[in-house]
Amino acid sequence: xxxxxxxxxxxxxxxxxxxxxxxxxxxxxxxxxxxxxxxxxxxxxxxxxxxxxxxxxxxxxxxxxxxxxxxxxxxxxxxxxxxxxxxxxxxxxxxxxxxxxxxxxxxxxxxxxxxxxxxxxxxxxxxxxxxxxxxxxxxxxxxxxxxxxxxxxxxxxxxxxxxxxxxxxxxxxxxxxxxxxxxxxxxxxxxxxxxxxxxxxxxxxxxxxxxxxxxxxxxxxxxxxxxxxxxxxx
Length: 234
Known about the structure:
Blueprint: E1 4-7, H1 11-23, E2 28-32, E3 42-43, E4 46-50, E5 62-65, H2 75-83, E6 93-94, E7 99-100, E8 105-106, E9 111-112, E10 117-118, E11 123-124, E12 129-130, E13 135-136, E14 141-142, E15 147-148, E16 153-154, E17 159-160, E18 165-166, E19 171-172, E20 177-178, E21 183-184, E22 189-190, E23 198-201, E24 206-210, H3 213-229
Parallel strand pairs: 1-2, 1-5, 2-4, 6-9, 7-10, 8-11, 9-12, 10-13, 11-14, 12-15, 13-16, 14-17, 15-18, 16-19, 17-20, 18-21, 19-22, 21-23
Antiparallel strand pairs: 3-4, 23-24
């Protein structure tokens, strides 16, 4: 069975389903979600076919994972590990109103929603969530599993490291790094580098506290993997 399966049935998954329908270039098969109460129901007219592991019974279907929220923005990374799918199973969903320059690239499993702009030589990794009206300017780098909420603006040459979450309406200064699995609060203005595994809020943004446990667990897992293999990982 060809077509697309969306893993998750919450807000982000529903927005992605709408983007797929607006694009009209791939058949939307349905949602997969581990909430058994949803199985056999429809969400915005799209069927919930079963749990996430059903993806293995439909090997011809493409997949995009659309889970996570500010309380647990590491959920996509855990699901990717759990499902163990090859990279070529993952689709890239780009809303037809998004503007992606010819010099930019977007990795597998990533979603760009309505009116996003990637101006020049922007690199977006795998399983990245880019919400509506985000602007990524020249030479920005967004690493795997990052989440960029609606209305975010990144200055030129900014970098969001693996799993970083940038809240709605935040501004990130040019050349600035937001560290792995850190969270920037909504409406914040990031004027300097944010270390990994922290929550920063305000204008200018300042450290509030450590990130929540799921994000810190991912950060520790990645650090251990780097130590084991003896070199950096993307």
